[in-house]
Model the fold of this input.
Amino acid sequence: MKKPLIGLIPLVDVERDSYWMMPPYFEALEEAGALPVMLPLTADEGALAQILEMCSGLLFTGGPDADPALYGEEKLPACGLVVPRRDEMELRLFRMALAADKPVLGICRGIQLFNVALGGTLWQDLPSQAPSVIQHEQKPPYDQPAHKVSILPGTPLAALLGRAEANVTSRHHQAIKALAPGLQAMACSPDGLVEAVWMPDKRFVWGVQWHPEHTCKTSEDSRRLFAAFVEQCV
Ligand code: MN
Done:
């Protein structure tokens, strides 16, 4: 049986002028029965249409901050590096994926990108704009949980995990500020950040602020999340 092909948004190293990928993204998808491939960095509509046709699902990976101009804000000094070529590719590909109702999973930057694409806004820098006792930028080891999230009842994440709470990793200095219309929250951190979203009218559009790919070896929750995604990628 052929494995579902899942396209990964490439990581971009501007300094080294290179594209790259972190093994845990591949490993998590492979262990869930998929065949992951890294996509080229392109915003060409024809190329993206072909990619969409070829792939059974798309993984929107972690990465740099989205350009605040995309949600109508001036870039603050504490906002990180932006990579406009990635923003352009991902916004276009995400919208095309929605139109085609392709399964998509967004991780870290991914959930933020979905929110921006659908008209929401982001905290450009949590430590300075929304200080909290919760540690959202954990120190290594990155496969250990950093904080809890409460899972909203009635959401597919609650159905998947069968619990009202989960322990998650946390490596982000940005987060959803105003949740976009169209997205619904599935999990929140104790300080009130939306850390997981879904789109009820789509086959599988899920975003998580944490990094389940780092905890597939230790967390059944993480394995279930990837399995749920890959199951929809047929
Ligand atoms: Mn967090």
